[in-house]
Amino acid sequence: MIKEIAVLTRKRLIYISCDPATLCRDLADLCHAGFTVETIQPVDMFPQTHHIETVVSLQK
């Protein structure tokens, strides 16, 4: 699916993840497809739990 996303995305992609393992896997694939990571921001949407969302801004 990363190849299709790379073809459809022109300049910028915002990726939101709730799982650090899949985030790392997908970011590696997206970087190989020509994207670079601009910013990474964790977001604690569920305080007092172990769940942390991560918002990543990528640019082609």
Automatic annotation (TrEMBL):
Cite the GO molecular-function annotations of the record: rRNA (uridine-C5-)-methyltransferase activity
InterPro entries, per database record: MeTrfase_TrmA_CS, U5_MeTrfase_fam
Q: Which UniProt keywords apply?
A: Methyltransferase, S-adenosyl-L-methionine, Transferase
Q: Which domain of life is it from?
A: Bacteria
Q: Which GO terms describe its biological process?
A: rRNA base methylation
| Catalytic residues of the enzyme | 18 (nucleophile)
Report the sequence similarity comment from the record.
Belongs to the class I-like SAM-binding methyltransferase superfamily. RNA M5U methyltransferase family.
- Protein's UniProt name: Uncharacterized protein
Write down the species.
Answer: Desulfomarina profundi
